[in-house]
Amino acid sequence: MDYILSLLVFFPAVAGLFGFLIQRDAMRSYAITIAIIELIFSLALWANFDASNPFMQFTEHASIVPAFGINYLLGVDGISLFLIVLTTFMSLVGIISINPNTKDLKELLIALLFLEMTMVGVFVALDAILFYVFWELSLVPMLYIIGVWGAENRIYAAIKFFLYTFAGSLIMLVGMLVMAYFYFQATGVWTFSLLDWHMLQLPFDYQLWLFVAFFLGFAIKVPMFPFHTWLPYAHGQAPTVGSVILAAILLKMGTYGFVRYSLPLFPDASVYFLTPIAILSIIMIIYTAMVAFAQKDIKQLVAYSSISHMGVVVIGTFALNPEGITGSIFLMISHGIVSGALFLLVGVIYERRHTKKIAEFGGLASVMPRFALIFGIMMMASMGLPLTIGFVGEFLSLLGIYKVSELFAILSGTAVVVGVVYMLYAYKNAFFGEVTNEKNRGLKDLNGREYTTLIPLTLLVVFLGIYPKPILEPVDNSVKAMVSLMHQKALTEEAREVIPEIKSEEVK
Amino acid sequence: MLEAVNISFESLNMATLTPMLVAIVGALAILTIDLFKEEMDKTLYIVLTILFLVADLSTVLGQTMGERGFFDVMLIDGLAILAQIVLLIGSIIFIPLAFSSQRFHEYRYPEFFALFLFMTAGFQFMVATDNLILIFVGLETASLALYTLIVLHNKDKSFEAAIKYFTMGALAAGFFAFSGMIFYGLTGSVELFKIFEVLEARNFEPMILILTASVFMLASFGFKMAIVPFHTWGPDVYEGSSAALAGYISIVPKVAAFVVIMRIFEGLIASGIVWIEYIFYAIVVLTMTLANIWALVQKDVKRMLAYSSISHAGFVMAAIMIGTTQANSAIFVYWILFSFTNLGAFAMLWVSHKKDSNYHERFDHPFEKFSGMVKMSPLSAVLMGLFMLTLAGIPPFSIFWGKLYLVSSAVNAGYLVLAVIMVLNSAIAAYYYAKLIVYMFMKEPETGVDGSVYMMNASISLKVMLGIAAFFTALSIFIVNPVLELSDFFIYSSGF
Q1: Cβ(A241)–Cβ(A303) under 8 Å?
Q2: To the nearest 10°, the Cα dihedral for B467, B468, B473, B478?
Q3: Which of A89, A362, B251, B365 could tie B339 with a disulfide, CB 3.0–4.6 Å?
Q4: 8 Å CB contact of B431 and A147
Q5: pLDDT for position A214
């Protein structure tokens, strides 16, 4: 198990390179096989993961540029473990979901395999530059996927996606370089290793500036209000598989960045910026939910609702207590599964009707009952109905922020309410009532390929909704370790108050 | 009666001159061969040129640091050796582009290769001295050879380009002479180290004269390197030259110019005359930003690349202004990594060049030419895409590491605002590089174009060159450390 992380990162990419040799018709089977093997690797990682150890495991280390302190440093802890499993799982689901008749299928699958490498890489990298390499590299396959297989306005959407995230992350890069310089000044050693950086206590005003630099990079990716404008375009134009991966995993890279970088590196600044970020998140939650309500296009609706829920993730993270952070990490997982599933479902109906306008549908429940059932479950999960996966994370996040401020909790709780409104309204219009549009009358219900992708997702939604412990426990351990590190590092009185002290027996 | 001057041969320390002599002897040899037997095939001359350059390089590698020679005019320090290595490797990898499958006018003349070697020698003289007069001689030798090389392409556009370049070059030469004159008038010397000694002793007074001289010097090299606002000739010259030569112009002459600027301005910026730094700062920011914005609206890929190399030169100028050891080392790291990528990008244009006819009535490489390229010629599209991504600074490809080190040097020296401006410029630049990717991968092919146009001019050697460029670009992560250590070592040991 020594090199399992390298294997996880590079296996899909190497397989993708070999993919060029595969004959066109056999490519789909090849890609699915690779994705299954990759999923098995990640499950093996989970199986061998020591849940009681809150620190980095399976670490690998090699120097890339020793003269400048850039390392090949990998590791997982409870925070990243499930994001890795989510990545490999959703990649598999995404790859299966692709219609075999898609044009240039081979190229699309190869792009997806490369994308999988970059996504896993982001979650396992513990060196800032390595992280940045994977982070930026992930833009390229996505640019290609949106730009080639997207809808009519795809090129604009692809370029907008690319430039927005690229600009944001470049500012983050400057932040990383400054951080490395501070570390160099303090210790005389050049390093970009995150584990070393975690040990450094930065003066308060440095923290503020660096926090802002990192924040820009992550916030654009999440995407936080007011940087969210690229996402609806990207979703609107991307092919189904692109939207699935984008919503399920790429957005999580931003929130993961907050947890992995912003909080432990800059605890005081995190507390200092708690209120502004909470306000931004609340605006994001309420505003995008209202925008979602106004959408006539069902994919745009899902896209805006996905942004709205990411707001809950951010606010949970910035509750800065174990409940909030654990909740937001769980919510990342559940959001990945649920929004991925919703985009798949939209893709199902789009493939049949070639339209995404809600007004074109109506009465689908009588024509496609099974589709309607799964859609219904996913929608409930998205709204955060108890006993579905969506509830656990949302509840914990809101609980976390409640400890900081009751007002914030109440305001972000409206997300649930507004979510119910737009989701049920759309569901009513699309699925209930008489079949008003003749074109909808002969629609076929789900086929085998769609069952293969949707049923596992549905099972997960229900199972983890009822019994979230296998995920919550390791996450919680690592989060507690991180929070206690933050508490120890905090300089200001205020930060010490907001970031709770974790008693040592609680950190197992 | 005048006494005879006795100079022992040893005191000349001819070892310092050997590399340039090798190049010059090579040029003369090529001319001599032509005298004995005319109309030989270009391949003979190409291979000879490469061999002479390799010999030149090996003598450079044999030089010891800290030597002076030839009446103390030559100065071989770490900077000189490093710069010569970069210059020569640049020349060695560019000259094989002459192995094009189509026959071009310029390669029929052995003079082309002789001039090429003279030019290389000129650049070597520029970097291996701190004497203003020898810098001037080297500069003019190289420039005059270069004008001729451009015009040998023998098209209307090349004449325009050469004349434009020549006129601007003459103006720049005038500026250089004027600036050198002021320095000489102030200090009574043309040796840079003496100039700075005297200036320092008198506390950089009179300031106005030093400022004038610096501005003239800056303008002179601004013209040579096409830095905003002296860049106007740049894109036209790139367009008029063959793509192979344009690639060369974008890389090698600039190295020589960087070194001279470094030698001259390091002391001036440190002099405490804030105006020099302000002017430099303004020029750096303008060069990066404006060149990027102009590149956004270009319709021709070659012109776009021309503006892009201006912008990249602006990055390097920023490092010269910062002036720390790390920054100076970053210049070379950046430029070495940049040259492989730019070689690749221009070589891609070169292999798609068709003799005697433009693809389009106005431009030879409009973006439309590359529309849907991936459908017809997937491998070349992927290569070009790789070079574009690299130029945009996407990790882990070569330029990213240079940029990382350079921006880091800005951060470490306290130029935070400059660092932010630099990365924002990278973001702007990403747009026009992505534009070509969009054309290649996401648009439908234009009707009536088949894939053959992209490899029109390719030959085995050209493909090998492309392969080398792509290899170093894609796998640069493994060469960054040695390049960085090499560059650090030479720069550090020459005290910059």
Answers
A1: no
A2: 120
A3: B251
A4: no
A5: 92
What CA–CA distance (Å, rounded) separates B418 from B281? 9
Tokens encoding B56:
């030149």
Compute the distance between CA of residue A423 and CA of residue A435 in angstroms, rounded to an integer: 20
Helix ranges (H only) for B37-131 are 42-61, 78-94, 110-127
- Beta-carbon contacts of A291 under 8 Å, excluding residues fewer than 6 positions away, are A304
The Cα–Cα gap between B168 and B174 comes to 10
Cβ–Cβ below 8 Å for B442 and A178:
no
Judging by beta carbons within 10 Å of its beta carbon (0-12, 13-18, 19+), is residue B450 exposed, middle or buried?
A: exposed
Task: Give contacts of A 159-178 with B, CB under 8 A.
Answer: 159, 162-163, 166-167, 170-171, 173-174, 177-178
**Chain B residue with minimal CA distance to A139?**
B394
For residue A246, give the 3-state DSSP assignment.
helix
Task: Kindly tell me if the per-residue pLDDT of A508 is higher than 60.
Answer: no
Question: What does the mean pLDDT of chain B come to?
Answer: 86
Residue type, A206: Y
B79, B494 contact by CB (below 8 A) = yes
The residues, any chain, with a CB within 8 Å of residue A170's CB and separated by 6 or more, are A217, B423, B424, B426, B427
B423: closest chain A residue by CA: A170
Query: Which chain B residues have a beta carbon less than 8 Å from that of A167?
Result: 424, 427, 430
The answer for A 92-131 residues in CB contact with B (under 8 A) is 129
Q: Please judge whether B411 and A147 are an interchain contact, meaning their C-beta atoms are less than 8 angstroms apart.
A: no
Question: Which residue in the block uniquely carries the two structure tokens 């720049």?
Answer: B172
Could you report the per-residue pLDDT of B394-410, keeping only the tens digit for each? 888 889 999 999 999 99
How far is Cα of residue B417 from the mean position of the Cα atoms in its chain?
27
Residue A326 — pLDDT band, cuts 50, 70, 90?
very high
Supply the ipTM of this predicted assembly. Answer: 0.90
A58 touches B at CB < 8 Å: no
Which chain B residues have a beta carbon less than 8 Å from that of A159?
431, 434-435, 438
Chain A residues whose CB is inside 8 A of the B407 CB are 173-174, 177
Phi-psi region of B191 (alpha: psi -120 to 50; beta: other; left: phi over 0): beta
Residue range A178-204, pLDDT digits in tens: 999 999 988 888 899 988 888 888 888
Separation between Cα atoms, residue A61 and residue A69, nearest integer Å: 12
Q: Distances in Å between the alpha carbon of B11 and those of A153, A458, B59?
A: 73, 87, 19
Contact at CB, B404 and A171, closer than 8 angstroms: no
Omega before A203 cis (within 30°)?
Answer: no
Chain B residue with CA closest to A130: the answer is B396
Give CA A267 to chain center in angstroms.
23
User: Confidence band (pLDDT; 50, 70, 90) for B107?
Assistant: confident
The helix/strand/coil state of A148 is: helix
The tens digit of pLDDT for each residue in B246-292 reads: 889 888 998 899 899 988 888 787 777 778 888 889 999 999 999 99
Q: Do A139 and B484 touch (CB under 8 A)?
A: no
Q: With contacts defined as CB-CB under 8 Å, which chain A residues touch B408?
A: 68, 177, 180-181
CB-hemisphere CA count at 13 Å for B293? 6
Q: Which of B382, B404, B407, B436 to mutate: most A Cβ within 10 Å? A: B404
Residue B409's closest chain A neighbor by CA?
A177
Considering only the beta carbons, identify the residue of A129, A139, A159 that sits closest to B438: A159
Say whether the peptide bond before residue A100 is cis (omega within 30 degrees of 0): no
pLDDT at B448: 60
Residue in A68, A140, A171 closest to B394 by CB = A140
CB nearest B395 (choices: A132, A158, A178): A132
In angstroms, rounded to a whole number, what is the distance separating the alpha carbons of residues B425 and B439?
Answer: 22
pLDDT of residue A338: 92
Write the single-letter amino acid at B476. S
